[in-house]
């Protein structure tokens, strides 16, 4: 039987504690260089890791986007950074960047998570903006600006930025009078019970793949296996990446691509960033569920912790805006009240079990029942990971409601750090619309209405982000703009890229029109694309022919108007 560390407070982190985060990657000593880096001479034969970057007054931030990386090496020198690793498929990745300006390598850091490796590089000259990351004015195809985190901080926008960052700091401090659970004690030693060959099906940019590896069973574990609506943890065993954790009866299977000897002592660490995010969302769900039931007798039938947002399915065909607002106000009041969250185990025949909320136990459940309680609010059967006090949630934002299955309603929400990230993305979109529409945020809606009333076609274009036009970030940016402007009655033609070279395009509008025009637009731009539900997007090789696309769209509108 295995046990998993799921809930704790700073007072619980002592001695044999199994709570915290993996240690930050150590920055290589300056004497370590490309000549002694394993395989550096073969760098040209390797693939590059997709890299995002953004600029701040004191630091430059880089994110090497590699999920479940292994064999990670990071070298930061005063004029360059060298990065290498292997991805989940075992492919070697290598990036070497000569910096735009000198940095302080001794005051720079890097941190690894299951999703990426982030580097914080300190500038020698603070408050001097970097127009690009690279020394030479080049645009590698694997490098692009992180639009979600990019913020202008010079000139007239400095005051605005200060206000945004001040608000972000306020959110971070909401009801938090103590530090979050300690992150440096997540070293847990245990024993390998068994190790057997296994396979893991993964899905990436190149489609589905089957990885060969091993299922490792430990005497105890602090890595949570998927269950109860919550995804599994990620982490390492003796610095070997754990790519999946699943429950098999009373055991947890840890999938690795390296075998471990049964009977050997091993050190287990968890990806704290992923764990704490899941804790915030899961405890947030318990709180929302309890409040919705208490205020309006709305029962939760299921929930899903998504990568970017979470959804609670409520047993009601609809909800009013007033109900949503009341639930959001109540849950945030309870966060400010700093209510404790406790975990206890009860036997099946304990009378208290009858008072506990739950939707039943798995058929293969064995042992005591685990109960998670929010003081004075809720008690619920749950196997998941949770915060030890509601103040650790920081804040909850209910984004919207959506129609669910079988006369049910999905309540979409964010908790904790996800609210901060959502705010930054929203602010970035607001700034982009302000630049495009030439008006303040308070006038965006009116400006878009005027555009829709005055024209049936709206064309917008941007130069390529650093790293070229073919970027996932640029595609996402165009879709965000399309969502904000709306395209129910207007044909919206958006492009990102070199005016005379390659780029990306998006055609949005009435589904029937987009279905007809999308392939023709791709043909004119000598590109390829695909679409559905009123959106057609793709890659173009001849962005210089955008005017021909505009003429094509105008002819179509004229023909349709004549028919009407």
TrEMBL record:
Name of a matching Pfam family: tRNA_SAD
InterPro entries: Ala-tRNA-synth_IIc_core (IPR018165), Alanyl-tRNA_Editing_Enzymes (IPR051335), CS_dom (IPR007052), HSP20-like_chaperone (IPR008978), Thr/Ala-tRNA-synth_IIc_edit (IPR018163), Transl_B-barrel_sf (IPR009000), tRNA_SAD (IPR012947)
Biological process according to GO: alanyl-tRNA aminoacylation; prostaglandin biosynthetic process
Keywords of the record: Cytoplasm, Fatty acid biosynthesis, Fatty acid metabolism, Isomerase, Lipid biosynthesis, Lipid metabolism, Metal-binding, Phosphoprotein, Prostaglandin biosynthesis, Prostaglandin metabolism, Protein biosynthesis, Zinc
Domain of life: Eukaryota
CS domain residues: 46-134
Family affiliation: Belongs to the class-II aminoacyl-tRNA synthetase family. Alax-L subfamily.
Classification lineage: Eukaryota, Metazoa, Chordata, Craniata, Vertebrata
Subunit (UniProt): Probably forms a complex composed of chaperones HSP90 and HSP70, co-chaperones STIP1/HOP, CDC37, PPP5C, PTGES3/p23, TSC1 and client protein TSC2. Binds to the progesterone receptor. Interacts with TERT; the interaction, together with HSP90AA1, is required for correct assembly and stabilization of the telomerase holoenzyme complex. Interacts (via PXLE motif) with EGLN1/PHD2, recruiting EGLN1/PHD2 to the HSP90 pathway to facilitate HIF alpha proteins hydroxylation. Interacts with HSP90AA1, FLCN, FNIP1 and FNIP2.
All copies of domain Alanyl-transfer RNA synthetases family profile, residue ranges: 216-425
PROSITE patterns according to UniProt: AA_TRNA_LIGASE_II_ALA (PS50860), CS (PS51203)
GO molecular function list: alanine-tRNA ligase activity; ATP binding; metal ion binding; nucleic acid binding; prostaglandin-E synthase activity; Ser-tRNA(Ala) deacylase activity
Keyword presence, Lipid biosynthesis: yes
This enzyme's EC code(s): 5.3.99.3
Designated name of the protein: Alanyl-tRNA editing protein Aarsd1
Catalytic function, reaction form: prostaglandin H2 = prostaglandin E2
GO cellular component: cytoplasm
Top class in the EC scheme: isomerase
Function: Cytosolic prostaglandin synthase that catalyzes the oxidoreduction of prostaglandin endoperoxide H2 (PGH2) to prostaglandin E2 (PGE2). Molecular chaperone that localizes to genomic response elements in a hormone-dependent manner and disrupts receptor-mediated transcriptional activation, by promoting disassembly of transcriptional regulatory complexes. Facilitates HIF alpha proteins hydroxylation via interaction with EGLN1/PHD2, leading to recruit EGLN1/PHD2 to the HSP90 pathway.
CDD domains (UniProt xref): p23 (cd00237)
Localization: Cytoplasm
Cofactor list: Zn(2+)
Pathway(s) this gene product operates in, as recorded in its UniProt entry: Lipid metabolism; prostaglandin biosynthesis
Source species of the chain: Piliocolobus tephrosceles (Ugandan red Colobus)
